[in-house]
Amino acid sequence: MSELEEEALGVIQSHREGVLQSDLWKLLDIDSRKCSRIVKRLLDAGLIERIEFRSDGIKTYLLRAKKRAVDPGLILAGEEVLPCIGCDRECDPEGCTILLDWIYLLALEEYQE
Q1: The B-block binding subunit of TFIIIC domain covers which part of the protein (predicted)?
Q2: Is 0.85 topped by the overall pTM?
């Protein structure tokens, strides 16, 4: 992926509700034709979705980043699931002893491999 494609994807991902293609090329400071080619490559890669949108009678497209499946291994340390999932405590993650114990297990598992 080119640097400009990564930048475009970053802009699209930073707008939860999506960004209009007619605004994207302005945000990236490129011409609309170049933007269309970048959007096409991102669509072909399955990274974004494009929805037809009318703004003041002018047709454009709303671009949204596709959600990617999360690797379940990212929330496991050995057999232990990330404790923050389902936690109802309001705490400071940096000072949470339960989370720190889980991180220790994760580091220990990494060290043993």
Answers
A1: 11-66
A2: no
